[in-house]
Amino acid sequence: MRQVGIVGVGHAKFGKTNGSFLDMLCEAALLAMDDAGAKTGRKNVIEQVLVASMGAGMVNRVSGAASAVVDALNIRPAMAETIENGPASGASAVKLGVMAIASGMCDCVLVIGGEAMREVTGWEGTDFVATMLHPTAEYKYGLTLPSFAGMFTRLCMDRFGVESKDLSIVSVKNHDNACHNPVAHIQRPVVLERITNPAYINATNPIVADPLRQFDMCPVSDGAAAVLLVAKDKQDELGFAHKPFIRVAGIASATDTHVVANRENPSDLLAVRLSAQKAYKMAGIGPEDIDVAELHDAFQILEIEESEEAGLFPRGQGHIAARNGDTKVGGKMPINTSGGLKAKGHPLGATGVSQIIELVRQLRGEAEGRQVEGAKTGLAVNFGGFGNNVVATILTTK
Amino acid sequence: MEQMYAYKCTKCGKLHHPRYVVCQNPDCDGREFTEVELGGKCKLLTWTRVYNLPEGYMQPWLHFGVVEFENGVRVTGQIGFDEGIESGMELLATVGVVRTRSILYKESIDCKETGFVFVKP
């Protein structure tokens, strides 16, 4: 198969956008194009643009975003498609871009992920995200993603002995990492004692979806991120010879039951396990070869359970690893050096692309203040629905 | 009171909830189902109390739970009481209004949707 890699990355600051949804997408796209040295107009070499967004049509009243972006960037007549796969839209779009190049259909693809979720109220935003649940068995009851995360956490507490404090430890670590990431939504350290002390925990860290508290889940963010993919055999010809080629060694997705209650074991994340296994197989490596990982911690319990399902720690040991500091920068297996969804933010369509950008920064040695020394291979897990559609990506400099 | 159902594959007998178009048994390709009444005694597997409810819910919080019936079918629903909720407890699955949607078309129409509400036996 043709080798496909990343030569340009662009990341708008996550948080609250001052412009429109399309402006935000274009900002990230231009940052990625400038990073690679890609030109617009007659000198454009981008043949396809993929825009990942879960709800631009629903939330921002913008449909056909990819067509609009191609025109705004003056890179017509590039092919343009908008991709929707819930919160895993970003990595799904990257996967489709890799497929387009690997197949020989294209040599250069721009992937942009974005979401402007703060244009609506929190209640509307919560409802919009919940629309990915099963319409009659889940959504109509008022169930939301935090509801499922709360019930999932309780199962993991019963099965593996995960404690509420373990979730706070993961949260504190990710906030610390985000302080070194200039594009993170919340660049503020959190003191463990402040969010766990029983004397005032209900004031500093109130319950949202029992047993989950505010610091056990990600904020609502706007944001956009973009990567430029090229074929290795065309890198020089297209004018990107000067940029490091971060190879997409493996990329794969897997699905699980739409109805969470119907899973054989509701405390397993089968789609995480299967997508990671497929990505490892494609890359010809195993979890022991991963130097740094970006895992989809929309809820802190997910970082712990995904780290196990992806094989980075034995089953039931993820929370112990977090307690021991193994997942910090400088630990045995650094996870979410970007700050994760917890502190960097989670603009749904942007998240999968943003995770991949953090891996590129790490593998290029550009993650100032949070650099994992000698990182050569990284894993990203982008989690859609409540785990019913997951994309795993492995990047490497090897 | 409305009745909730499991859907039994006429080919292999597997019970489903909700209704599917193809049997979920990996060794069966059945596409026809008969309705089997679903309700009564069940066991609470996990639960949560949620404070950030979506648009359209006026309550300060709601309790949700996943239960397993004696026939092995699992469903998610609302828990109809506030105190003494514990994983593993026995519950009774009843049917109640779980959402009221206002449909605005010339005049406002309240559309009540029913589903599982779990109560103490």
Describe, in plain words, how this protein is organized in 3D.
- The complex is a heterodimer of chains A (398) and B (121).
- With 398 residues, chain A is α/β, with parallel strands linked by helices.
- Chain A has a domain of 131 residues: Peroxisomal Thiolase, Chain A, domain 1, CATH 3.40.47.10.
- In chain A, the strands form 2 sheets. Chain A has a 9-stranded mixed beta sheet, with helices on both faces.
- In chain A, strand 5 and strand 6 form a beta hairpin.
- Chain A starts with a strand and ends with a strand.
- The relative contact order of chain A is 0.19.
- With 121 residues, chain B is an all-beta fold.
- Chain B has 2 domains: 38 residues; 83 residues, OB fold (Dihydrolipoamide Acetyltransferase, E2P) (Beta Barrel), CATH 2.40.50.
- A 5-stranded mixed beta barrel of chain B has the order 4-5-6-8-7. In chain B, strands 2-1-3 form a 3-stranded antiparallel beta sheet, with no helix packed on it.
- Chain B is globular, with a radius of gyration of 17 Å.
- The two termini of chain B are 18 Å apart.
- The chains are: A alpha/beta (398), B mainly beta (121).
- At the A-B interface, helix 5, helix 6 and strand 5 of A face strand 4, strand 5, strand 6 and strand 8 of B.
Question: Briefly, what is this?
Answer:
Chain A has about 400 residues and is an alpha/beta fold. Chain A has a domain at about 5-120 and about 220-235: Peroxisomal Thiolase, Chain A, domain 1, CATH 3.40.47.
